[in-house]
């Protein structure tokens, strides 16, 4: 509670002000003259002073000037109350005398309360700040005294203790550098995730249009080569976005129990071709290695990246050695940035050129590469590092210039019981999606390029397509077209997101099948997992789109629809 001083030669007006300000819950002081006002100011600390401009002994301007002359009241808030018309010159005179505001008569209670309340709160905050400053000065003084005492003790320590202090200083600097690096990478990761989302939208439109164009284009060898070149370029763009998302740790991983030896043996021919004829590969993979929990496809891509890097480090010839062993990590895991637990440690060692310490320190930074122009994106090691961390493991690179480089991956062991992934060279990558009855499909996307491409792919498959550029429009279309039985919606849309639209559709018509398509590899925190929405990741081909539709339509009678495309 603070003090509010009201100065007016008319008691009736003071009572009126008191009634108006009583709602503030503050302590109200009344003075009928300048003398009484000064007495109150000397006895109590006042937050706000209300002064009538016209008073018989001293007018408000003179009283305000007297108050301001006292050092204690240089910053006290003064509000003039005037029953006569105030000119600009009068206002300037009042401000010169020390006023902070004016209230004209007739006084509006709400206005008066609002103005007084603001200055009361300012007074409180000022006092709190002053107290905090006092406390801070006290703590600084205490800390200064402690430091002085510590300094006196430190002067008595021997040279060994000084060496320890220097070591701790270096550790602190390294920790700060690591923190700065982590913050920088997190910022870049958020940026790359957003860029990849927009790029995936563009690639969806490009790949879908090229796929439909290939079906309608007359036979012409040159045109087919150009079209295939465009498709390959778009596919390379899709691969680049996957690397960006892997670096940003925002890719949609499908972890499963993987037998590491089978996976590496299954891609042996691919690795041999990637290395070339001048490099020998040696593998030491025990038969009794426990399975690891990781996304098999992403791990294959990571291994291929590491093998290609090793090949480029051995331009003439050399040896690449792959080793794997069980590793139990304890408290020392903090030094390797992985949590305690059981892992399989996979090591790839080459006999190449190696790296100096400056290059090694930047090896996992995005877009950093020692290769020539056009020979690398600088995202390979960043992607591998992101995959390892996102999978719950870790990565470490050690290298010596002129000797070679070793990349160690720690992959978490898979829990017992669960389906195990094994390589099957004869398995077909294609998915049969024929036999699906024509559907009435609503495509919802705020990007007209994506909406047009998806609609054309669906129409080419024989489905009836409706389009909506927002969630609100989609709801109106669904209300007027009850025959629609499937909705494919983007997630990131202005106004209403795809998840919010799915909730609204479920409440309106629970039987409609909803597929969530997104250029983000993983969705933001707004995704309600209870909706159990099938996912279609952008960019997608016509076959992937048809396969998703076939899958969800066949499962419509089931209680589980949880496909991640």
Question: Could you describe the 3D structure shown?
Answer:
The chain has 17 helices and 18 strands. With 565 residues, it is an alpha/beta fold. The protein has 4 domains: 123 residues, Rossmann fold, CATH 3.40.50; 78 residues, Orthogonal Bundle (Helix Hairpins); 166 residues, Histidine kinase-like ATPase, C-terminal domain (Heat Shock Protein 90, 2-Layer Sandwich); 115 residues, 3-Layer(aba) Sandwich (Rossmann fold). Helix 3 packs parallel to helix 4 and helix 10 packs antiparallel against helix 13. The radius of gyration is 37 Å and the shape is flat.
Which descriptors apply to this entry?
disordered C terminus; 4 domains; Heat Shock Protein 90; alpha/beta; five-stranded mixed β-sheet; 565 residues; Rossmann fold; Helix Hairpins
Distance between the termini: 63 Å
Protein structure class: alpha/beta
Overall domain count? 4
- Give the % helix: 40-55%
Which fold name corresponds to the CATH topology of the largest domain? Heat Shock Protein 90
Number of strands: 18
> What is the residue-averaged pLDDT?
80
Name of the top-level CATH class of the largest domain: Alpha Beta
Could you write a compact summary of the structure shown?
This protein is α/β, with parallel strands linked by helices. 48% of the residues lie in helices and 18% in strands. Helix 4 links the parallel strand 4 and strand 5.
Layout of SSEs?
Layout: E1 3-7, H1 11-21, E2 27-31, H2 34-43, E3 46-52, H3 60-69, E4 77-82, H4 88-97, E5 101-104, H5 109-154, H6 159-216, H7 221-248, E6 256-258, H8 260-266, H9 268-275, E7 279-284, E8 292-294, H10 296-313, E9 318-329, H11 333-336, E10 341-350, H12 357-361, H13 380-390, E11 394-400, E12 404-412, E13 420-421, E14 440-444, H14 448-460, E15 464-468, H15 471-480, E16 486-490, H16 498-508, E17 513-518, E18 535-537, H17 542-554
Helix pairs in contact: 3-4, 6-7, 6-14, 7-13, 9-10, 10-13, 15-16
């Amino acid at each position: 509670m603070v003090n509010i001083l009201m100065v007016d030669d008319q008691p009736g007006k003071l009572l009126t002000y008191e009634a108006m300000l009583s709602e503030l819950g503050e302590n109200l002081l009344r003075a009928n003259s300048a003398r009484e006002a000064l007495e109150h100011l000397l006895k109590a600390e006042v937050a706000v002073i209300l002064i009538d401009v016209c008073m018989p002994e001293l007018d408000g301007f003179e009283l305000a000037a007297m108050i301001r002359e006292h050092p204690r009241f240089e910053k006290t808030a003064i509000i003039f109350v005037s029953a006569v018309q105030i000119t600009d010159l009068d206002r300037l005179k009042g401000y010169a005398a020390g006023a902070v505001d004016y209230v004209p008569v007739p006084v509006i209670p709400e206005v008066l309360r609002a103005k007084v309340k603001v200055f009361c709160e300012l007074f409180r905050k000022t006092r709190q700040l002053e107290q905090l400053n006092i406390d801070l000065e006290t703590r600084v003084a205490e800390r200064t005294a402690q430091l002085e005492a510590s300094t006196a003790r430190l002067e008595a320590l021997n040279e060994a203790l000084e060496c320890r202090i220097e070591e701790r200083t270096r550790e602190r600097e390294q920790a700060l550098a690591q923190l700065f690096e982590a913050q920088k990478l997190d910022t870049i990761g958020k940026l790359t995730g957003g860029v990849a989302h927009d790029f995936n939208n563009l690639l969806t439109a490009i790949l879908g249009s090229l796929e439909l164009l290939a079906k309608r284009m007359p036979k012409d060898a040159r045109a087919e080569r150009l079209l295939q070149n465009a498709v390959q370029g778009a596919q390379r763009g899709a691969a680049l976005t996957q690397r960006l998302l892997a670096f940003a740790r925002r890719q949609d991983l499908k972890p499963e129990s993987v037998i590491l030896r089978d996976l590496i043996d299954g891609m042996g021919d691919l690795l041999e071709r990637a290395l070339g004829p001048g490099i020998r590969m040696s593998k030491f993979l025990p038969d009794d290695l426990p399975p690891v929990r990781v996304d098999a496809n992403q791990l294959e891509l990571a291994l291929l990246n590491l093998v290609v890097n090793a090949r480029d480090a051995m331009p003439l010839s050399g040896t690449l050695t792959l080793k794997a062993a069980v590793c139990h990590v304890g408290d020392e895991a903090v030094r390797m940035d992985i949590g305690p637990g059981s892992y399989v440690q996979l090591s790839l060692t080459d006999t190449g050129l190696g790296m100096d310490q400056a290059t090694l320190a930047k090896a996992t930074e995005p877009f950093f590469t020692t290769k020539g122009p056009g020979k690398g994106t600088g995202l390979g090691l960043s992607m591998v590092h992101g995959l390892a961390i996102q999978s719950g493991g870790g990565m470490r690179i050690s290298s010596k210039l002129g000797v070679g480089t070793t990349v160690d991956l720690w992959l978490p062991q898979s829990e017992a019981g669960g389906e195990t992934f094994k390589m099957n060279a004869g398995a077909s990558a294609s998915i049969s999606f024929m036999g699906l009855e024509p559907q009435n499909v609503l495509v919802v996307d705020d990007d007209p390029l994506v909406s047009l491409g998806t609609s054309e792919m669906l129409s080419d498959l024989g489905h009836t397509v409706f389009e909506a550029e927002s969630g609100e429009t989609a709801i109106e279309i669904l209300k007027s077209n009850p025959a629609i039985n499937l909705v494919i919606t983007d997630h990131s849309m202005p106004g209403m997101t795809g998840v919010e639209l799915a909730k609204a559709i479920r409440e309106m018509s629970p039987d409609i099948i909803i597929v969530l398509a997104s250029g983000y590899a993983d969705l933001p925190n707004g995704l309600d997992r209870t909706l159990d929405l099938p996912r279609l990741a952008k960019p997608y081909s016509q076959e992937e789109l048809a396969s998703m539709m076939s899958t969800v339509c066949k499962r419509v009678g089931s209680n589980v629809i949880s496909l991640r495309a």
